[in-house]
């Protein structure tokens, strides 16, 4: 499934506004989306009209499937908290360069491996297991280890080319 990069909820966006925006961007009618999500069109209508923000597990799973969005986004919107607070930073220790932002697809809760090189993504320091607090830091603030891994593979290539 393709994950759109602009499908994150925006600041101050309500659940209703968000669902309408993503649905429109996918050029789906309310009826089509209800069918895809396994919902009654009336139920979807109520959610999109902002009459309810209580979604049960089945509804959340259906909407996330129909729109190709993580359920975490819906959770955050229902609870009225920013999406970032339910999400950890995740980076590829090979491809990430310190100080740069993470690729949106690394942050997707379903991503476990880097889409570029296939390395397991990390959300914590490999040596002390503390979560990565910010991508501004090159080194772990707790134990001083660099987050970016200098792999043996890379150094072999470098040595080989000298
Ligand atoms: Zn990578
Ligand atoms: Zn550490």
UniProtKB/TrEMBL annotation:
Q: Does the keyword Disulfide bond apply?
A: no
Q: Which Gene3D superfamilies match?
A: lambda repressor-like DNA-binding domains
Q: Which domain of life is it from?
A: Bacteria
Q: What is the lineage of its organism?
A: Bacteria, Bacillati, Cyanobacteriota, Cyanophyceae, Oscillatoriophycideae
Q: Which SMART domains match?
A: HTH_XRE
Alphabetically, the GO molecular function entries are: DNA binding
Keywords (A to Z) from UniProt: Plasmid
Q: What is this protein called?
A: Transcriptional regulator, XRE family
């Amino acid at each position: 499934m393709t994950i759109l990069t602009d499908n994150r909820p925006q600041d101050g966006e309500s659940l209703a506004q968000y669902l309408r925006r993503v649905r429109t961007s996918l050029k789906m009618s309310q009826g089509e989306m209800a069918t895809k999500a396994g919902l009654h069109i009336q139920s979807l209508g109520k959610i999109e009209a902002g009459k309810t923000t209580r979604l049960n597990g089945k509804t959340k799973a259906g909407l996330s499937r129909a729109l190709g969005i993580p359920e975490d986004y819906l959770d955050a919107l229902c609870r009225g908290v920013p999406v970032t607070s339910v999400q950890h930073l995740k980076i590829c220790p090979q491809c990430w360069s310190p100080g740069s932002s993470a690729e949106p697809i690394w942050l997707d809760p379903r991503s476990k491996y880097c889409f570029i090189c296939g390395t397991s993504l990390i959300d914590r320091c490999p040596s002390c297991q503390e979560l990565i607090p910010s991508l501004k830091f090159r080194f772990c603030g707790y134990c001083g280890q660099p987050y970016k891994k200098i792999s043996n593979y890379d150094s072999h290539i470098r040595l080989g080319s000298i």
